[in-house]
Write a structure and sequence with these properties.
With 356 residues, this protein is α/β, with parallel strands linked by helices. It is 34% helix and 14% strand. A hairpin with an 8-residue loop joins strand 12 and strand 13. The structure holds pyridoxal-5'-phosphate.
């Protein structure tokens, strides 16, 4: 005569909501994908793959990929971790390093996956409000805590911070792990990977999805001291020993070797970003300074959600967050120059004025 229902056994959790993936002919500026194709070297690595090898399991530590990433950063191989997208790297890092009784800290405006992982993994957290200009005040992180995660450049604001900011947080939190989520570092001026050997409490995560045009392959990495990487590998091996499949490793490794191509693509995106920002400012938008491949914009006379809905009707997807403090902003991924032109034209239609 049990009163327990089957459903009482289910986890009660609100998932992270990813941007829409509409099929067909859309201008897709809502999930920060790279508008340019992956390196030809990555494509060839898959084309020329010896498919018979797929019978076997991959090597569990993706040595080839890790070796390439280590060489790129001038680090020994045991400073590098890889997994199935930086989302998985981050989830494994949360499980590995946030085991204190104190809450971990992250900004109130940041990647909205952080609170989801905390709830999934039973990690207490405190959100620290960013300033009115959306900057993170590093002095707010000088309080007792169980760990810190900061996206730098931050999402969805795009604001990137430099060495002094990261150093202040690391110096004031020597006994906890500080994760710098650098999913957008390929578009920024600064990366904390340069500080890995100085700080044994620093873990820097990165992604192949934005800067390397390989969101569909799902590859992410982390850089940290060999001690941190060992713990991450132990947790990975307790969950899924083979997070990176053989084709992803082959293409990922090849793409690391084609740094020149990606540098060119990223530079082009940054150039398009700055001209899109200037154009939107002329149309009356306020656009936050961005060090990423997207911009965060608001207009005093235009309701952001209404504009989002209008653009969607025109098959242009941007991202709107129905959340406190940012519900009057749109996050717009940087596409090709043609795609941005298309966006500006639609916005001009909405504003009811001619361009120029
Ligand atoms: C896109 C993104 C990720 C996840 O990247 P994947 O490698 O595609 O899993 C992590 N953190 C931030 C801040 C992101 O924007």
């Amino acid at each position: 005569m049990s009163e327990i229902r089957l459903q009482d056994n289910f986890i009660d959790i609100e998932p992270y909501v990813a941007g829409e993936q509409l099929e067909g002919d859309v201008v897709k500026l809502n999930t920060n994908e790279n508008p340019y194709p992956p390196s030809q070297m990555a494509v060839d690595a898959i084309r020329n793959y010896t498919f018979d090898s797929l019978r076997k399991y991959p090597r569990s530590s993706s040595n080839e990929l890790r070796r390439a990433l280590a060489a790129e950063q001038g680090l020994p191989e045991d400073y590098v971790f890889t997994a199935n997208g930086s989302d998985e790297v981050l989830a494994l890092a949360f499980r590995s390093f946030f085991n204190s009784n104190m809450p971990i800290l992250f900004p109130d405006i940041t990647y909205s996956f952080y609170p989801v992982w905390c709830k999934l993994l039973g990690i207490a957290f405190t959100k620290i409000p960013v300033k009115d200009d959306f900057n993170i005040d590093e002095t707010d992180y000088k309080v007792e805590n169980g760990g810190i995660v900061i996206a730098n450049p931050n999402a969805p604001t795009g604001i990137g911070r430099g060495e002094a900011f990261v150093r202040f947080i690391l110096d004031n939190n020597k006994n906890v792990i500080v994760i710098m989520d650098e999913a957008y570092a390929d578009f920024a001026e600064f990366s904390a990977v340069s500080m890995i050997k100085e700080y044994d409490n620093l873990l820097v995560t990165g992604s192949f999805s934005k800067g390397r045009s390989l969101a569909g392959l799902r590859i992410g990495m982390a850089y940290g001291s060999p001690e941190l990487i060992r713990v991450l590998d132990t947790v990975k091996d307790s969950f899924n020993s083979y997070p990176i499949d053989m084709l992803a490793e082959a293409a990922g490794t090849a793409s690391v070797l084609d740094r020149k191509y990606y540098n060119e693509c990223c530079q082009r995106i940054c150039k398009t970003r700055e001209s899109a920002k200037a154009t939107l400012e002329k149309l009356g938008f306020y656009v936050l300074p961005s060090s990423a491949n997207f911009i965060f914009a608001t207009h005093s006379k235009v309701d952001a959600k209404s504009l989002y809905v209008f653009l969607k009707g025109k098959k242009i997807l941007v991202r709107h967050f129905d959340k406190p403090r940012i519900d009057q902003y749109l996050r717009i991924s940087i596409g090709t120059d043609d795609e941005m032109e298309c966006l500006v034209k639609a916005i001009c239609d909405y504003l009811g004025k001619e361009r120029g």
